[in-house]
Amino acid sequence: MADPKGFLNHGREVARTRPVDERVKDWNEVYVPGSLLPIISKQASRCMDCGIPFCHNGCPLGNLIPEWNDYAYREDWSAASERLHATNNFPEFTGRLCPAPCESACVLGINQPPVTIKNVEVSIIDKAWETGDVAPRIPERLSGKTVAVIGSGPAGLAAAQQLTRAGHTVAVYERADRVGGLLRYGIPEFKMEKRHINRRIEQMRAEGTRFRTGVEIGRDLTATSLKKRYDAVVIAAGSTTARDLPVPGRELNGIHQAMEYLPLANKVQEGDYVAPPITAEGKHVVVIGGGDTGADCVGTAHRQGAASVTQLEIMPRPGEERDAVRQPWPTFPMLYKVTSAHEEGGERVYAVSTTHFEGDEDGNVQWLHMSEVEFVDGKLTSKPGTERKIPAQLVTLAMGFTGTDKENGLVDQFGLALDERGNIARDADFQTNVPGVFVAGDAGRGQSLIVWAIAEGRSAARGADRFLTGASDLPAPIRPTDRALAV
What we know:
Blueprint: H1 6-9, H2 20-23, H3 37-44, H4 55-58, H5 65-73, H6 77-85, H7 91-97, H8 101-104, H9 117-131, E1 146-150, H10 154-165, E2 169-174, H11 182-185, H12 195-207, E3 210-213, H13 223-229, E4 232-235, E5 241-242, E6 255-257, H14 258-270, E7 284-288, H15 292-303, E8 308-313, H16 340-343, E9 347-350, E10 352-359, E11 365-376, E12 379-382, E13 388-391, E14 394-397, E15 401-403, H17 410-414, E16 437-439, H18 442-445, H19 450-469
Parallel strand pairs: 1-2, 1-4, 2-3, 4-16, 6-14, 7-8, 7-14, 8-9
Antiparallel strand pairs: 5-15, 10-11, 11-12, 11-13
Helix pairs in contact: 3-5, 3-9, 5-6, 5-9, 6-9, 7-9, 10-19, 14-15
């Protein structure tokens, strides 16, 4: 185990961020490079070797957290990397992007700040890349079976890597021009530099996975022809249908879905544009939606030189400490969170609802009208006399997603059944109602976290492997019906 007195001798320290006035001038990751390694051994030593490691329950991947904490404490980076990769295909993604439900479930967190599990994880994997401990795992023999994976987000990539390593010939189809899904075009560069994706893709190519970009199944290639061409199909197309805001003035120019706005900023970093077609430069920006995607819009607007940034959330402001009754340990609490983007400026307004937009004579949005809301008999209701307007020359809608794309023909062409929430239905093996067609990630679960996506990809890979060969040694960390720890 790690130092038995580590949690008594050392307080919680997290990665240092670069000064705000420095980082808003570039698109590099916000953290100070190399700031974790000098402190991470002591931080890993805070792991208590508790009798029941609830961090395992908090993480759907079943990460072996106490084990790699111990190796990190001893600075045995090679062994730590092996334990980390035993349950997680892409720890450099989760270590940067996951909100860390494992830390919310940490036993130490009952009465102290929890172990910095996420920082330990990213330290291990970054060290592993540096020392060459991450190498292609080429299968010893090929099965002769072929698999198509639709979508190259975390679920699709995890499923593809698992199935390739099992000996199947796997092709990943991605409708965008580059591999990565929302990791590539939905996550801003300052949260995760895309070099982390690129080197994983090279590893997967070396293992034998093939990638087909710019191909949308349902439009460019029919689902029927795909199913005839491959022995099995894994659908990991994500939950990409954005929730809209049907209020007067929605048709005005300058109002965009977050996933219309964010990818263009990433394409500038890829070299596709000198300047993005949609930019916040010199504009009063309003972001509607208080979640992580909204925060991504806030940070992007800061870097583009917005005149002001306001983020609106319809729900009341969460508390800053866990409510022991409503959100007891070890559940993942909804707390007031200050991300790196919020540190950079802007205003956050809670418990408000947009009533309508107002534009100029040229049809460009200029003002957003809103009112305060409150719960009355369990329903959100506008409070009379609280109406006001704020300047809005660029509005981004970051209110979540309602399901997988059903307009491109993929669902109908396969003949897939949907569940009561509009997601693609699947059985205990992640198989749909169509034999040989499996579904993983947000397309089957609905909008969720990156750790759930990777867990789904790994589990669906086991189902597909068993379908193809009659048995499987691949791990399946979750069942389709599993959900996050809740009251």
